[in-house]
Each structure stands twice: as structure tokens, then as C-alpha cells.
Design goal:
Shape: elongated
Strand content: under 5%
Order of helices and strands: HHHHHHHH
Number of strands: 0
Largest sheet: none
């Protein structure tokens, strides 16, 4: 049980690291910040998303390929691909669609910002415990 608590605490720390590295008031600002990492080095962009690799490592270590761990990995992968696609649309294939341009100006509420920690941490706990 102590190991599970340590794993969850590390996940919490990594989620808040991601939160800090990607924090912005608007979606467009977050994509601009992520583009800065992406433009410097693609590996830096992926290093700003450590929870994906952490969950993958925990899943492999505990051999817990269940619904919860697969859900986390799929959501994290979709998040990465979505961000890369927005970077591609904004910087490499302009002009951006009107709908996407409007979406980039959306204000990110507190609920959007804390969605990841409030979702992934309990799912990781359930993944290990089942």
C-alpha cells in the first residue's frame, strides 16, 4: 500500500509540473507556449508531458493493462496528438480554419485546467488497485 501512495504522489507532482509548464489563460496562448518547446526541439515538447511516460511505466511495471490504465494512456495520447495538430494548423499550414481560430481565443476556465489532475490521478489509483 505504501508503494501505491508513493506512485500516486509522484503522479500528483508530475501533473502539477505539466500544469505549470502549459499554463495559459487562453488555448491559443497554451499552443504558443507549446510551440516554443516544439520549435526548440521535438523531444523537449514530449518531455513537457511526463505523465504519459510515467503512466506507461507504471502500467508496464505492475502489468495492469486494465480499463483504467488504457483509458489514461488513450486520453493522454489523444491530448498529445491534438496539441501537435493545433501547432501544425497554426504554424505550418496557415491560414487556420475559422472555427479553430475562434477556438484558440477561448478562455481556459479553472475546470479545464484542473481536469487532468482530477481525472488521471484517481484513474491511476484504480488501475493499480484492481
Amino acid at each position: 500500500m505504501e508503494t501505491v501512495i508513493q506512485i500516486v504522489i509522484v503522479m500528483i507532482v508530475l501533473e502539477f509540473f505539466e500544469f505549470y509548464m502549459q499554463s495559459a489563460n487562453r488555448l491559443g496562448e497554451m499552443i504558443d507556449k507549446l510551440y516554443g518547446y516544439y520549435n526548440k526541439n521535438i523531444f523537449l515538447f514530449f518531455l513537457v508531458h511526463p505523465t504519459f511516460y510515467y503512466v506507461l511505466g507504471v502500467t508496464l511495471y505492475f502489468d495492469t493493462f486494465n480499463f483504467y490504465s488504457i483509458t489514461i494512456l488513450v486520453l493522454k495520447a489523444l491530448d498529445l496528438f491534438f496539441k501537435i495538430e493545433l501547432i501544425k494548423q497554426r504554424y505550418y499550414e496557415p491560414p487556420m480554419d475559422e472555427e479553430l481560430e475562434k477556438m484558440m481565443e477561448l478562455k481556459m476556465t479553472l475546470g479545464v485546467k484542473v481536469f487532468a489532475p482530477l481525472t488521471y490521478i484517481p484513474l491511476l489509483y484504480l488501475s493499480i488497485m484492481t
